[in-house]
Amino acid sequence: MLPDRWLKNKLVKKQKKQPHERPLLTRKEILDLRYRIEEERKASAYKHEVEHRALGDARSIHRGYGLDYDESRPYYPGDELRFMNWRATARSGEPQMKVFREERRPAVFIVVDRRQSMQFGTIRRLKITQAVRAAAIIAFDALLQNTPVAGVLLESSQASGLKTGQQSNLTWIEGSSTESGVFHFIDTSNQPCPPHQVLENTPPSALSDVIKLLTPMLALGSSVVLISDFHDLEDGCRSSLLELSMTHHLQAIQIIDPAEKSLPACGNLLLQSNDKSITAINSSDKEMREEYQLAAGDYLLSKRDYLLSKQMLFRSLGISCQTLMTNDDHIGSMVKV
């Protein structure tokens, strides 16, 4: 008969999850991000008119009994006399009422890219892990301001957790301003990223498609944050970005890995080309790195131009675009809405 302790150890080893089966962030890391944002958060002004119904300190499109006087209008039976504009009434000879501009809190909507290109990282963490850290900071900041948080996750081809045969590229998360709702958003974004599987008859998901959906579906004045490496964002998406930024506070956060800028010295590497052929190199060899730089100089140059062009696209439209490297640790003060 086997000892009970041996059986327990065997079961623990058997149940141990593989790295790709674990959440991207541990609970301790998530709570640490919350403590950081509580210490670093600072109040900021909001410039867009807000349609969301939650009361707050941002200028609203709704007019009623707020704090800021907007204009006067004729008196209608049933109006409260305490809002009578006596000076305008005296000048015009007709009863005039004061109309105020209400104050509302802008809702926060976060787009998190979880596609295959985000499941890459050479130093410290994956790009998707850094994206979830940024999303958690934004969500916790909204929670401290009692602001509703909603979002959408963009998956490679099939959302995690779906049954076989059930296909969807988008995971929508309903808005909530409660602590449990914010943690639900973070936990959903923090789901494990299994190896990419190509599904037949499944159209490729594109960030531009999501951007086109947001303008008609979001309440005016929402604060929208796009978190991605923007690898497939083309100049043809300019009109959709401009339309979204005209009625919402739009912000982009680009996640970049250091290896996307230069080849790191990290020992033996297996490089796979577009035709699936594999080449082995020793990246720690200085001469090998120089040879690689010469052989792939055109590609690396275009890669640098590619990274820069995405930021220029946003800036040409007056949209804030922040850059986060995967090895940046203290991002609480860097990520702001």
Report on the structure:
The chain is α/β, with parallel strands linked by helices. It contains 9 helices and 11 strands. Helix content is 34%, strand content 22%. The strands form 3 sheets. It has a 6-stranded mixed beta sheet, with helices on both faces. Strands 1-3-2 form a 3-stranded antiparallel beta sheet. A two-stranded antiparallel ribbon has the order 9-10. The protein has 2 domains: 18-47 and 105-256 and 311-325, von Willebrand factor, type A domain (Rossmann fold); 55-104, no CATH class. Helix 2 (27-40) packs across helix 4 (127-144), helix 4 (127-144) runs antiparallel to helix 5 (179-189) and helix 6 runs parallel beside helix 7. The termini are far apart.
Q: Span from first to last CA?
A: 62 Å
What is the CATH third-level topology name of the largest domain? Rossmann fold
Give the percentage of residues in beta strands.
15-25%
**How is the largest sheet built, in terms of strand order?**
6-5-4-7-8-11
Number of strands: 11
**Count of spatially separate domains:** 2
- What's the average pLDDT? 76
| Major sheet details | 6 strands, mixed
Number of helices: 9
The string of secondary-structure elements, in order, is HHEEHEEHEEHHEHEEEHHE
SS-based class: alpha/beta
Given the C-alpha coordinates, what overall shape results?
A: elongated
Oligomer: single chain
Work out the radius of gyration.
Answer: 25 Å
Q: Architecture of the largest domain in CATH? A: 3-Layer(aba) Sandwich
The CATH class name of the largest domain reads Alpha Beta
What's the CATH superfamily of the largest domain, by name? von Willebrand factor, type A domain
